[in-house]
Amino acid sequence: MTTFLKHGLLLGIAILQACSPAGKQSAALEAEWTKIGPGGGGSTFIPCFSYHTPDRFLVRCDMTGAYLTNDGGKSYDMINFPNGSSCFAFDPHDRNTVYVGSSFLNRSADGGKTWTPILPKPDEIISERYGGDHAGYSVEVTADSPYPRDARTVSMVLVDPVTPGTMYVAMGSYLLYSDDNGQNWAREKIDRRINYLYTNTFGLKNELYLFTDAAILIFDKTSRKITERKLPAAMTPAESFTAGTLKNSGQTVFYAIHHTKPRNNDNNYATSELWISYDAGITWSQVNDPVITNRSSGVIPSFAMVRCSEKDAAHAYLVTNMYPETAGDKTVYWYGAIKTGDAGKTWDWVLKSGGGSGQYGVQDARDADNIKDAWVHEAFGGEFILLIDVGVAPTDGNIAAVTDWYRTMKTTDGGTTWEEAYSISNSDGSYTSRGMDVTTTYGVHFDPFDNRHIAISYTDIGYHHSYDGGKSWTRSVAGVPVKWVNTCYWVVFDPDVKGKVWSVWASLHDFPRGKMTRNANWSRTGSGGVCVSDDGGKTWKPTIEGMGQDSPATCIVLDPKSKAGNRTLYASVYNKGVFKSTDDGKTWQLKNRGIEGNTCAFDLTLAKNGTLFLTVCPTPNYQNSEKRGDFYSGEVYRSTDGAETWTKLNVSDGLLFPNSITVDPRNPKRIYLACWANISLGDLVGGDVTRNLPGGNKTLDMPGGVFRSDDGGDTWTSIFDKRQYVYDVTVDPYHKGRIYCCTFNRAAYRSDDDGKTWKKLKDYDFHWGHRIIIDENDRDKIFITTFGASVWHGYPATENY
Q1: Residues 284, 235: contact at Cβ < 8 Å?
Q2: In whole angstroms, what is the distance from residue 322 CA to residue 326 CA?
Q3: How far is Cα 715 from Cα 769, in angstroms, rounded to an integer?
Q4: In what order do the strands lie in the sheet with 252-259?
């Protein structure tokens, strides 16, 4: 959606806004990227505190970013690795040394400013590749590398608290260890996956404990021999372990969760028990505290995670997401954190939210009374919110952080009170990010009548806008149907009518990723449509006559040649095709003539000469909601008669995954198409389907990168690496010859010769990028929207520029 008409009608804005003059970027303008948005907004995990100060901790999100704070959560620096981070460790001997596990084991010796991979080492890597629907990263290593070829992620790292330079790494069922600061590694293969590693400076200083779901394996640090200590059958399988020593005595305490039946969904809903050992796992006992067993209700709750303080283990926090209680003639559900301060003898709630039906998006719950929160409380506090994880400071069990679907919160008083650690609350009711931005964005949109008013279209948190040029933000979804508010895909301001804005919404996020359409009923259950605002986006109302509520809409474009008050608009609907309105969006007509069986319309582009272009993305070909192995290829279409008819364009022989299309504002015959690279059949139809197919799962040969046409779409030429997953192309109307493309390959690129040559943008390293948008208030700057890191803003300096 990166054309002169799609991105906020750039031509009209250029006339109406007072913008900085365009010109060649100088070295003085090379500034660091800043992140904008309200902060938070997505799921975060594994908070991990430093041994040296509780003000320093790390948190990761599920969208590949990691966040490091040195001031207790007041601000964060973002750390990016391929596929994101999987585990953290602070060195107990050196306050400046930090480890992050990902596809590699990475070390920083300067407090997180710079990073070096130490496992595998660069000279052990034969090749690197990105593959699958999310461009997952993997490496092939030399035969003599200790890096296990069948375990692609570092799942845990532990620095020995006794011996500096000694460290232990878990990768699936492998234990790797080094006694020379990671220069050389030895490896042991364990029969079961390693879930947790532990040692201490007291009774276990000569042993490393490896926790699995059925046994503890004890690694002798001197002899390197491993012995097994089976867990009691009554507590297996065990899924979550934590361990530490009591502050005064040095006694070791182990905590573990046992699910009495398997999980029944992704929210960890499975009846659970908590077990404790006070003798290093020789004996275990089930915790029978009435809060843990939910004795008053008689229904066993579900526990997801337990964590204690490593050197203050009397303090432990237990995460629960299904804690039923009887309220009159109905059952209500609570979620939150339960804590012990006496090594498991007694437990009580320290964070208790819910009290409703426990259903996502249903406003019948309440946030905990002891939270001092930012914008999430107002936006989602009345709903069920999944609590995900907890981390505890290793030297003070009263300091902890919890994470959920939208925020990170911290306590310094043992859970008596909790305070947000993701967003600054401003006096005018707006919010400013602390640097932890974890939500997907699609566009930055500019008000043609107010250059300080800009908007962001978001996944999960809807529409946010700013009236101070992006410094602070407010969420605005008033009037949007509840079923739609999850995702605002796009926004367009009327260039001539002040306050008039259209937006498109859907209950399903992350289109066009294949994961969204693997459910055979997705097209029947998805909802969405078009909304209109007359007050600049402060309030909205649906405008869907002829379209219907079941229309997950992903793009909307406005024809600026149509009359104000009676605009012609086009909208793409992911399960229906293309709709057109000729009455300002009041009524809509389906315009699919010439579009073949696949109607997953994603991106629309309107050229200055009136030609429309459409991308349709690959989707499973389900019949009567029956999952099967065949699918529709993606397609590109053109219309020269206002969407009355469509002609399919031949971009490349064979399968295609077109994502977005862009027209050069100076030359409507020059078109750029962004394409997704090779994905697997399982990415489209699901692994449950491909496991039963004769050929199993297979890679689908789809050319990615960028294609260009200089004749309006009749012929096409590849002008960028076909192996890269390009989300969008942007033509800069203020710098002749300059175009950008943004990828899911940890890079964005700039060309100053219409795509003949490309250079990476300097210091941009987020794995999943969406699109680049020119800053209409400073045309030398750009915004980069992302799949999970909000919006980056800065000057587009290139490497070796």
Answers
A1: yes
A2: 13
A3: 28
A4: 238-245, 252-259, 272-277, 285-286
The whole-angstrom separation of Cα 17 and Cα 9 is 12
To which residue do tokens 């509840």 refer?
482
Torsion angle (degrees, nearest 10) of CA 532, 538, 541, 547: 40
- What is the rounded (10 degree) CA torsion for 594, 598, 601, 602? -140
Cβ proximity of 17 and 779 under 8 Å:
no
Instruction: Return the DSSP state at 387.
Output: E
The least confident of 11-20, 50-59, 301-310, 436-445 is 11-20
Q: Where are the alpha helices (DSSP H) in 145-201?
A: none
User: Domains of the chain by range and CATH?
Assistant: 10-37+437-794 (2.130.10.10), 44-425 (2.130.10.10)
pLDDT in tens, 761-799: 999 999 999 999 999 999 999 999 999 999 999 999 999
pLDDT digits (tens, 9 = 90+) for 455-495: 999 999 999 999 999 999 999 999 999 999 999 999 999 99
* Residue 696 pLDDT level (bands cut at 50, 70, 90): very high
Q: For residue 572, give Cα distances in angstroms to 483, 595, 599, 612.
A: 18, 12, 9, 12
Using alpha carbons, select from 776, 784, 673 the residue that is nearest to residue 729.
673
pLDDT at residue 266, rounded to an integer:
62
515: its two tokens: 């994961």
Residue 232 Cα distances to 69, 258, 277, angstroms: 40, 11, 11
Burial track 579-615 (b if 16+ CB lie within 10 A, e otherwise): bbbbebbeebebbbeebeebbbbbbbbbbbeebbbbb
Instruction: Work out the angle at residue 33's Cα, subtended by the Cα atoms of residues 29 and 35, and round it to the nearest 5 degrees.
Output: 140
The pLDDT tens digits of the residues spanning 582-597 come to: 999 999 999 999 999 9
CA distances from 298 to 273, 329, 349, 689 (A): 13, 15, 18, 40
Pairing of strands 418-420, 371-372: parallel
pTM of the model: 0.94
CA 54 to chain centre: 26
Give burial (CB, 10 Å; 0-12/13-18/19+) of 124: middle
The one-letter amino acid at 108: S
Q: Under a CB-based contact definition with an 8 Å cutoff, are residues 708 and 716 in contact?
A: yes
| Burial degree of 475 (CB within 10 A; 0-12, 13-18, 19+) | buried
- Residue 59 tokens read as 């948190």
Other Cβ atoms less than 10 A from the Cβ of 7: the count is: 26
Number of H helices, E strands in the chain: 6, 65
- Can you tell me the distance from the alpha carbon of 431 to that of 657, in angstroms, rounded to the nearest whole number? 38
* Residue pLDDT, tens place only, 726-752: 999 999 999 999 999 999 999 999 999
Contact (CB, 8 A) for 606 and 570 = yes
Q: What is the mean pLDDT of residues 532-552?
A: 98
Average pLDDT, the chain: 94
Give every CB contact of residue 622 below 8 A, 6+ residues apart in sequence. 520, 628
Token pair 């973002």 is found at 78
Secondary structure (DSSP) of 365-379: -B--TTEE--HHHHH
Inter-CA distances, 580 with 183, 509, 512, 568, 639, Å: 63, 23, 21, 7, 13
- Please report the DSSP string for 583-645 in residue order: STTSB-EE--TT--S---EEEEEE-TTS-EEEEE--EE--BTTB--S-EEPPEEEEESSTTSS
Q: Enter the tokens of residue 773.
A: 């948008």
Look at residue 622 in the predicted model and tell me its pLDDT: 86
Both tokens of residue 456? 């962001």
- Burial (Cβ within 10 Å: 0-12, 13-18, ≥19) of residue 148: middle
Please write down the HEC assignment for all residues of 216-229: EEEEECCCCCEEEE
The count of other CB atoms within 10 Å of the CB of residue 349 is 17
